Amino acid sequence: MSQHDNYRFQVNLGGMIDILSNHLYSSPKVYLRELLQNAVDAVTARRENEPLAEGSIKIDVTGAGGPATLTIQDNGIGLTEENIHEFLAVIGQSSKRSGDLLAQPTSFIGRFGIGLLSCFMVSDEIVVLTQSAKGGPSLEWRGKPDGTYSIRKLDTELTPGTRVFLRCKPGSEAYFEQEFLESSIYYYGALLPYPITLQTEQGFKQINEALPIWIKHPDMARSHKAEVLAWGERLLGDRFKDFIPLQTASGRTGGIAYILPQGVNLNAKRAHRVYLKNMLVSEKAENILPEWAFFVKCLIWSDELQLTASREHFYENDQLEEVRGELGEAIRSELMTMAELAPDRLQAIIGSHALSMKALAVEDEQFYRIIYRWLPFHSSIGQRELGELLQEHKHLYYTLTLDEYRQITHVAAAQSLVVVNGGYIYDYELMSRLPLVHNGAEVERLLPEDVSFTFTDLTAEERRNYYEATREADAVLQEFRTQVQLKRFKPSELPALYTLSKESSDLRSLELTREAATDLFSSVLGNLSAGLQNAGYATLYLNLDNPVISRLFQSGKNAILPIAIKMLYVNALMMGHYPMNRQELSVLNSGIIQFIDWGLSSKDHNGGTTV
Ligand SMILES: Nc1ncnc2c1ncn2[C@@H]1O[C@H](COP(=O)(O)OP(=O)(O)OP(=O)(O)O)[C@@H](O)[C@H]1O
């Protein structure tokens, strides 16, 4: 061997065919899609020269008692002997693209030159009888999965077109059954432009229907409402009540966005059905619409997107991004028009799909401005639309988290503050941006500690009277880094309110985590919490308007006070939905036991106070 000998890669043809036919596709059932696609492309090619030729595709299965044989017959362009050698028998060669440019747009569905190989998933031989529409002899081609093929001239002349025969290989029987064929032809080919008929016991039956006008002109869908809804039910399986027609500016992608009858989970998969050049590509296409559009299920047809070789996905390229943007815009602008011309219709959609609408409103201020008044929020006066809330209350408060909301909502409500729960997804962002879309709206984030600003201070005399007891109560809660403040506030049924600053809240969470953590992690957390030791104290507000607190303090220094304060502290934690640490739980346990004990021997206890 000299230093510069050149060699050629060798191809193991059988191995290549095995990879392409058995491992590229998600299921053997796609063989039917590939055959349909070739038949449709052949008819399209013939109509390019003979525009008046009427396409027809027929499928039947024979072979009672033995292995079934499927035949698919088209009256398309057919193949000459030269075509067979060049296209049918060369893997990766296709008559449907110009030159070697895969990206070049054509009117055909196929372009890779590998689709026919999928037939080897269900059959050990592909037999093709063909007559070219351009003349020449009728031919028979037989191809095998080991990469060999034969060609024979037929004695009789066939009508122009092609018949493909597949004999079922053992294990593939299910893919030749009548029921499978009928449902799969409809599944893949419901939108194909030529009649596809299947042989049944009653004769040939057309499986796909004539295409309605609104497939070509989606803007006409509105005047064919019943038909559009019926197609939606047949193809997508849901009973829809409303839809939005979709169309891109080029007119090369169109569709119908059916509005889902019920609200869906944010993480639910968006299962849109997408057709490329009228052939089903995917029923799980998730990336064809913007993220926020999870309230619709779509039928989309396109002739401009590019398929990957598996033919089940689109390339995520600029074109897809553009189409996605335009389809999203079609939905958005229909919603905007509804706000102006059919607010009831929009309100019904928002009623079931508030989350989707909020997702879009967060992304798009203009949209938010148009629809904010119908968006529902959870507030201290109940579930309300923003419009209603703003009508009655100029100043709205909102919280950042659900916990904060729970901690203060009943107290805030008693002070006549209207608090919106910002803890649900998108609500905090939307509330904070409300002034941008509604003139004069005043919004303010409310922290648990803020509600105390509305509490009433004690008079100087009350302060003197309760000084000793307050000091003792304060000392009792030192170990919980909590100070006690005696105030008057509403509601009077509430004896105590626990609030803490952001820093002391962080410290509290850290310490709780530390309790549950492993030794190593716990020491790391220990270092972190050391840095927060100066975080300041939490506050337990005791409500002198509450009859029990009032009695507790009026009786001055007494034996029951320390344990009562601790119990009020843990009770306030529970009311505020704060998780409790071990020490607090043990206070709760021993406190309950002690109070029961006191109750049982009430004659004996010191203060004579019953709580
Ligand atoms: N029914 C048919 N009528 C006429 N020509 C056909 C027919 N079926 C296949 N062919 C020819 O065989 C070639 C190879 O077909 P194959 O299905 O493997 O690939 P393709 O359709 O070109 O591309 P793709 O892999 O994207 O489907 C086609 O390009 C076409 O020239």
From TrEMBL:
Keywords: ATP-binding, Chaperone, Nucleotide-binding. Signal peptide: none annotated. The keyword ATP-binding applies. It comes from the Bacteria. ATP binds at residues 34, 38, 74, 162, 311. Pfam families: HATPase_c_3, HSP90. Transmembrane segments: none annotated. The keyword Cytoplasm does not apply. GO terms for molecular function: ATP binding; ATP hydrolysis activity; ATP-dependent protein folding chaperone; unfolded protein binding. PANTHER family: HEAT SHOCK PROTEIN 90 FAMILY MEMBER. Belongs to the heat shock protein 90 family. This is HSP90 family protein. It comes from Paenibacillus oryzae.
